[in-house]
Amino acid sequence: MGIKIQVLQTKITPPNLKDIILQRPSLMKKMKTIPRYPLTILHSGAGYGKTTALASFIHDQKNMPCWYSVGTNDDDIIPFLTYVVYAIRKNHHGFGTELLLYVENIERYVRDEEIRTLCSLFINEIILLNKNVMLIIDDYHLIQHSSSIDHWMAWLIQHLPMNLNLVISSRIKPSWDFLTSMTVKGELLELKQRDLVFSFDEVEVLLSDLYEGDMTDQDIKKIFSLTEGWIIAIGMIRGQLSSDGGLEAILNNKSKSLDELFRFLAMEVFMKQPPMVQQFLENTCIFDELNGKVCDEVLGIRSSGEMLKELSDHNLFLLSIGEGQYRYHALFKEFLEQRLYSTNERHFYNLHIQTARYFQRTGDFNQAIYHLEKSCDFERIAEILHHYGEKMIQNGQLEGLLDRIKKIPESLMNHYYLLWLYKGEALRYRCSYKEAEDCYIKAIHFAHSAGDLEGLSKAYEGQAKIYLDTIQPGKAERYLLQAIEALEENAASSSEDKSRVYQLMAENLANAGHANKAKKWYEKGRELNIPLLDGNLESRLFLRTGKLVEAKKILIQKKVVEQDQKTVHLQQSHRETDLLLSLIESFMGNGQDAKELAESGIKQGVQFQAPFVEACGWMRMGHAVQLLDKYDASLAIQCYETALEIMDELNVARGKAEPLMGLCILYGNRGVYDRAIEFGNKALEETEKVKDAWLSALILLCMGISSVHNEKWEEANKYLTRCEALYGNCGDQYGIALTQLWFAFLYYHQKDKESFNGVITSFLNKVQVGGYDFILTKRTTFGPLDLYNVVPLLLDAQKEGIHLPYVNQLLNNLGYSNITSHPGYTLRIQTLGRFRVCLGSQEVEESDWQRGKAKELLELFVTMRHTLIAREEIFATLWPDHDETAAARDFKVALNALNNALEPNRVARSTPFFIQRIGSSYGLNQQAGYQLDIIEFEEWIHAGLHEKDTEQVIKCLRRALEFYEGDYLPNRRYEDWCISERERLQVLFLRGAERIAQSFVQTEEFDEAIYWCEQIIAKDRTWEEAYRLLMFCYYHKNNRPQAIKWYKKCVSALEDELGVGPMQPTKQMYNLILQHQN
């Protein structure tokens, strides 16, 4: 009999895109490859946006694919084939005429051989089209159970004509056995559920921009965590927000706010399952992760593994997370748990109790505790934590431990008293010292009452660690002695416990400045043959005894081991490896390295929620930035003040000593003496209170240095004398060497030759023995502000024959092997953005120049720095309107004023040091060791332009571009003699800024790239590459209107300035943006 199927056009018409649609580059990139594959299968569970993704894909195709949206009534071969034909006929008129005639006259029941005939007719008609055809079949799972359709599809796919691309979208991946072979041959593109899941960034854009939601970042994070990127759930939650008063209401009352979602789940998934599957789903929903074994063991059934695989294969919101391992989608799990609890509360609790017992038997205490919490069995939780809490701390599970302990009633805490100890430990690691101390006190009380010497010693040890963490050796010693007493009284004490506490005692003695006593306790701990504590004790002992190279070596080795092993890291307070290394690098004059390590310390503090560590990072950052070439005092002050604020919040007064010390030397170096001494006294008050002799010595050294800089000779002598005595007691040879250096400066300025000779001899001896050459070759925290400050001292030592070979070597390394005098400072000249001259750290004021032409003369010498300038050329350049006699007179006056400005203390009629004269030619003395910003700018620019590694390019060019504060000699912008140099340097800036912008594009730091492109255009509005980069950046930031605006600005600038249009690459970029916008 004839068969006539009424075709609904809506089923063969591709869905329209919504007004609000999120561009998903990652997904679209994969979908763009669909035309390359004969077969594409897109499969995922309900609500993951398969249809929307396909609609978006179709929207971008030049040739419209054929679309067929399957319905539940299409589960027979005849209606199915009819719709397939009409779907293709919509784009290819007249297709399938012979096939439809055959279908219309076929019997309702189609035999197997007829299925193959139908398939052959279809294939032949596709080939006859002689055009490429793409057929998309959506919701294929609705008819997947039909054996006739499945047979026809399998036959078709195995004989696909070259001009047909078939795309299948389904909730369940078809089980055809030939799919594996097609994958291997590269004939199948498979898009899975994970490809459709929305990433966090996509959820953020969707909720914040497209839905125009007024949400915080925290709200978006919570929605993402709850939905796991499931778009239908995200949309439903978004729909509930306006009526329920925000996300918190939904999260706190999920069963109410997600009713619509749960009804969907129940209707679409749960209620359609057989009763046995429903029961299995309810019984297994309590597991965070599932496998066949755990389900069989807990539920007392068999074959759970097969059931789980079947559910996962059918995309029943059961996600495969590994071989035989699964987990429910978060929202589906929530639905199942709510249903189980509401329908059978007793069974819900019993399941959790049975599961807890299983995990306790298998040693998975985290899971056991989780299920006991669900069943509100806090006594069993306390019992487990009493024995398992220490392991959780060692594993870094501080938050989990605290959260669980907080739920346990105090009466149970008092019975299982080690919980007080563990809570104290967790709080101490989080720098909550007052709350931690309260917990330790309770642990001590209950352990003492129970006669538990081991618990007692650990509680005393914990309390001591509070004062070790905050470097209060006086207070820590009392509790350490009590911990040792309890340990040694307990015959069952382990060697590991004894070694640990002995090493803590050694650390505490090192903190107090008793290095020799510390070494004895350290060796006592090592004799027990137990691995050292992870507290960098040995390196800290080296640091506090002046063995900086050895300390640095140990810390670097440890850092390498930590990175290789990737072990769980518990914060170590001020003992963090990066924090110690940062301090050592500052002491050794490696400012950039110290800065990077301090940044790492700050990040660690934030990551570990350890504000004391973060504060230490800020104070070390303050030390580091003072050593950088481009140093801003306000930045260092801000670092120290941040550290002080955190210490105030923590109520740890001792922690203020180091940042106060930093402020002392900072203000002392700047000549603000009273403030420097005020900060020094405040710092000293804290260290003397806790008996930290070593840090007290450092503070006194800073006060002594500040006094020398400000010519307070009597006060300098007083502070340095106290400092030297403390360093002697601590055994710190580095500290003693520094003290002697500043004594040498003191005696040199006081012209006390005998005392000078004594301390300079001792200083040079300690520098050679201790390997402290860096004090004289690099700017260090406690060394001279200007390295050339030491040259006059070395020249005097040379005259006296003190350590002559070494002194000659030092002077030779500094480039001064043949001089008899030196001004004792570096001439520093800034030319970019402004003209500024400093003698060491002292700026030459306007009044110091005496003559305006003196400054202009120096600017000319700087511009022509590579050569000496003939006197006549100087006349013609600076005094073009003067006759030779007048020009010579004015030149002589200007030159004399220049020499006086640069060397105000030069002995009369002695040869100038910085300005050189050879015959009748003049210029800068190339051997004078002056610092010129344009030299450093140029060196770093060229280093960055020639570097291949992107990270190194950015580092080099950042340093270079910091120097470019503006154009060269802006006050001489109209002088012909500096135009060429100004333009040359500006081009270097533009090339450097372009390269760093390109590098930031490579690292996808688009905001940084935009900043530098805008800087380029501010200097040269015709620099076309900057416009291209701006367009590219805004395009990738999904801000196409801004990208188009920059193209139009480019067109306008090129036309106005050069009368030309953009280059082809710029036009291509613009066309690409337009295509995606459309």
From TrEMBL:
This is Transcriptional regulator. InterPro entries: AfsR-DnrI-RedD_regulator, BTAD, P-loop_NTPase, TPR-like_helical_dom_sf, TPR_rpt, WH-like_DNA-bd_sf, WHD_MalT. It comes from Bacillus timonensis. It comes from the Bacteria. Residues 932-1074 form the Bacterial transcriptional activator domain.
